[in-house]
Design a protein that fits this description.
The complex is a heterodimer of chains A (about 325) and B (about 160). Chain A has 3 domains: about 120 residues, Topoisomerase I, Chain A, domain 4; about 100 residues, V-type ATP synthase subunit C fold (Up-down Bundle); about 110 residues, V-type ATP synthase subunit C fold. Chain A contains 16 helices and no strands. Chain B has a single domain, classed as Up-down Bundle (Four Helix Bundle (Hemerythrin (Met), subunit A)), CATH 1.20.120. The chains are: A mainly alpha (about 325), B mainly alpha (about 160). At the A-B interface, helix 1 of A face helix 1 and helix 4 of B.
């Protein structure tokens, strides 16, 4: 009998998302925003499509950031409300917990708070997380997270290098995400998580190569659990993106690398970042037509996050008077 | 009049037709109803469009009921006395109920899935909703075949 209501709940959630999806901004609307004469006009367009922007706040990047944060919050609240298995979505909120941990632990060492960097779309509210870290009362954290925090404190005290905090927490976040994906027993989630890890690892490879650092450094940064073997990345670091293209030829990432190679050779990472965002969106898009499972919900989550990212690119571009053509160039693909 | 094993089997046939076709329909209509509610939550004006799609998987339950009714009528449940039945005749009624019991059950569930997907059409392209009705109604064909098979057997196949 349980499977009976399970299907019905998904049918409800997916149908609801299908209606909500209609409100996503398509490429034309984004372009119209880019072409808006004033920032006010662009803000009005956003308000019309459901964004809660205040019109008084036009040129203040901080206020725009706050409005976008609110959109993220609304998105995750919606998912928590309608998803029949909200625990699956933990995998996407978790990265925000680890982001918050980085901010909290680093501000402890810096001696001043940076609360404006904290995200309220995490699984543990940041106010609680702050107290947990301050009082070192880590019992309510997952084992992975607790060990990572303890590790951070211990290692930082030895090395005083804030970078170790990032490394330790990124790795713990990846391992915890893998565990959640496995526990969900959903092939789509497992595959999606692997793709995210792979793309992050390839990005690390490219960055480390650009910075001219060694394989040892890359070895610390690479995350476990992807489909691309870590050793392959380490062995080919010296050969750069051409070596990587050779190794990953005939894999799903080949096209992505070929398309980003030209600008990467000039030292530009943003093309790769844009294309890898597009790659993930493309993957979720391909699965959006199942009606009794989590795919369309995850699809919407990624689509909306992607849209918020695009809105940020447009708004910051407009505030900084960046020419429309360049802003359009930077925009990610859209879901609808 | 004595009640025989034949009567018990005929009753079992009537029950099977009503139970399984009804169960399938309940499930199909429930799933389609979930999707319909999802659409209506966001856009109440679409109620009229999703309703026919929700109802479609319900017909199998009706076919099961009709089959059950005709079996019961044939064995005389609605007249003053039951028609005497041999065990073999009872088994024939039981066999006659199987097409709508089995096909009704599965086709209603499957039709419910198509209905859910078609409610997606209403969500995305409300103007094309009649196409969703056609797609969903296609599954109905096989339920109709099954109920025809059952009824032919009950009405013409079993000589009392």
């Amino acid at each position: 009998m349980i499977s009976l209501s399970y299907d019905t709940e998904y049918a409800y959630a997916v149908a609801r998302i299908q209606v909500i999806e209609n409100k996503l901004l398509n490429k034309d609307s984004l372009y119209r925003m880019v072409d808006a004469r004033t920032i006010d006009e662009a803000v009005k367009m956003l308000q019309e499509s459901g964004y809660s922007f205040k019109s008084s706040s036009n040129n203040d990047p901080y206020e725009i950031e706050e409005s976008l944060k609110l959109e993220y919050k609304r998105l995750y609240d919606l998912m928590a409300e309608i998803a029949p298995e909200p625990e699956v979505f933990k995998i996407f909120r978790l990265k925000n917990d680890y982001h918050n941990l980085k901010v909290i632990i680093k501000s402890e060492y810096k001696g001043y708070a940076q609360d404006e960097l904290l995200l309220d779309t995490s699984t543990i509210p940041y106010s609680e997380l702050k107290l947990m870290v301050r009082d070192r009362k880590l019992d309510d954290m997952s084992e992975e997270m607790r060990n990572a925090v303890l590790d951070c404190v211990e290692t930082f005290n030895k090395t005083s290098d804030p970078q170790v905090i990032d490394l330790i927490l990124d790795r713990a976040a990846a391992i915890e995400a893998i565990n959640i994906a496995r526990a969900s027993k959903k092939r789509f989630i497992i595959e999606l998580n692997k793709i995210i890890i792979d793309l992050t690892n390839i990005s690390s490879f490219l960055r480390v190569r650009l910075m001219g650092k060694t394989g040892d450094f890359l070895g610390n940064v690479l995350l476990p659990g992807g489909k691309v073997n870590q050793d392959l990345l380490l062995e080919n670091l010296e050969k750069g993106i051409n070596g990587l293209m050779e190794v990953l030829a005939s894999t799903e990432y080949e096209k992505l690398l070929i398309s980003s190679a030209e600008s990467y050779e000039k030292g530009i990472m943003s093309t790769y970042e844009k294309l890898s965002d597009n790659y993930i969106l493309d993957f979720v898009k391909k699965h959006k037509y199942s009606v009794f499972d989590v795919e369309p919900l995850v699809g919407y989550l990624f689509a909306k996050e992607n849209e918020i990212r695009n809105v940020r690119i447009i708004m910051t571009g407009k505030i900084n008077n960046i020419p429309g053509e360049i802003i359009k160039e930077r925009l990610r693909e859209t879901y609808v | 009049m004595e009640i025989t094993l034949g009567h018990a089997l005929a009753f079992a046939g009537a029950a099977l037709a009503a139970i399984f076709a009804g169960l399938g329909s309940a499930r199909g209509v429930a799933n389609a109803g979930g999707a319909a509610a999802g659409v209506v939550t966001e856009d109440p004006s679409k109620f009229g469009q999703v309703l026919p799609l929700q109802i479609l998987p319900g017909t199998q339950g009706l076919y099961g009921l009709i089959t059950a009714f005709l079996i019961l009528q044939k064995i005389g449940m609605f007249s003053s006395e039951l028609v005497p039945l041999t065990t073999h005749q009872g088994l024939l009624f039981l066999a006659a109920s199987l097409p709508i019991a089995v096909i009704g059950f599965f086709s209603a569930i499957l039709q419910g899935k198509v209905a859910v997907a078609s409610i997606g059409i209403v969500a995305k392209r409300p103007k094309e909703f009649s196409k969703g009705i056609v797609l969903t109604a296609m599954v109905e064909t096989f339920a109709v075949f099954a109920v025809l098979a059952s009824l032919l057997m009950v009405l013409f196949g079993i000589k009392l």
